Amino acid sequence: MGKRKGGGKLYAVRVGRRTGIFHAWDDCSQQVHGFSGAQFKSFSSQAQAEAYLDCCEEHETEPASPLCTSSVLLCGVGVAQEPGPAPEAAEGGGTEPCPLVSPRLCYRLEWDGGARGNPGPAGAGAVLYEDESSSEVGSVCVTLGHATNNVAEYRGLVAGLEAARDLGVRRLRVMGDSLLVVNQMKGSWQVLNAGLQPLHKEATELSRGFDEFTIGHMPREANKVADALSNVAMDGAGWEGLRDSQARPLYRAAHGWVD
């Protein structure tokens, strides 16, 4: 285990191909990427990193900074679960991102939103799948309060796009049952409603952040999972951030980590 030679972050690998303290993320990534059950963290000091390796319990570190400007953060101990390049950790110490997705693969986002009464109690849901295998990566379920159907549809799309972006998805195919939103996102229909214009702008800006992005319409009967999530959200039982296919939290809002 080498001594620290200069400033910057250190990476402690507790479970991986090789364990110990590494001075570069590339070196750390080689030990944990694709290694089932890998555990690793970044630290600002040698003492913190050594304590993490020596202690059975997690050593407390400073919260990580957001990976981007959204209100979503990675959470939990870094665990390498899927093959595919893992992104560099956020600055400021804390937990490393989980490589749940591969930038080489295409993913499919299905979303929905609605309001009871229109306007009324509103909610939205979105599910992210690996496109070819249709294996679920995670889902969002957002309780919105009082809103219209179309606002809820856009909010569901935005929440899904944010989650895909923050997971590191680079190629995305989006499907939803709202002809209005799909055609407005394609540029086929104008956005005349002033209340939808900022949401359309936000969704458009998010879509431009992917290397590949398409959006299309799907029948409502084929959108059952996202529809069910939006109904859960309308009932007031939505959750913060992204959950995986076993309903375990992956992200939460920026005011704290999930323990």
What is the topology?
Blueprint: E1 10-15, E2 20-22, H1 25-32, E3 39-43, H2 46-54, E4 72-74, E5 94-95, E6 106-115, E7 120-130, E8 135-147, H3 149-167, E9 171-176, H4 179-186, H5 197-207, E10 212-217, H6 224-234, E11 242-243, E12 251-253
Parallel strand pairs: 6-9, 9-10
Antiparallel strand pairs: 1-2, 1-3, 3-5, 4-12, 6-7, 7-8, 8-11
Family: Belongs to the RNase H family.
Pfam families: Cauli_VI, RVT_3
Domain RNase H type-1: 103-235
Brief descriptors of the model:
four-stranded antiparallel β-sheet; 6 helices; 27% strand; RNaseH_sf; elongated; magnesium; 259 residues; alpha+beta; Ribonuclease H; RNA-DNA hybrid ribonuclease activity; hydrolase
Q: Please give the radius of gyration in angstroms.
A: 20 Å
What class, by secondary structure content? alpha+beta
Calculate the mean pLDDT score and round it: 78
- DSSP strand content: 25-35%
Helix content estimate: 25-40%
* End-to-end Cα distance: 29 Å
Overall spatial form: elongated
State the total count of DSSP E strands. Answer: 12
Low-pLDDT segments, ≥5 res = 1-6, 56-98, 252-259
The strand line-up of the biggest sheet is 10-9-6-7-8-11
Please trace the helix and strand order, writing H or E for each element: EEHEHEEEEEHEHHEHEE
How would you concisely characterize the structure shown here?
Belongs to the RNase H family. This protein has 259 residues and is an alpha+beta fold. It is 25% helix and 27% strand.
Task: Describe the protein.
- The longest helix is centred in the middle third of the chain and has 19 residues, at 149-167.
- 25% of the residues lie in helices and 27% in strands.
- Residues 1-6, 56-98 and 252-259 have low confidence and may be disordered.
- α3 (149-167) runs parallel beside α5.
- It is built from six helices and twelve strands.
- The protein is elongated.
- With 259 residues, the chain is of the alpha+beta class.
- A hairpin with a 4-residue loop joins β7 (120-130) and β8 (135-147).
- The strands form three sheets. It has a six-stranded mixed beta sheet with strand order 10-9-6-7-8-11. A four-stranded antiparallel beta sheet has the order 2-1-3-5, sandwiched between helices.
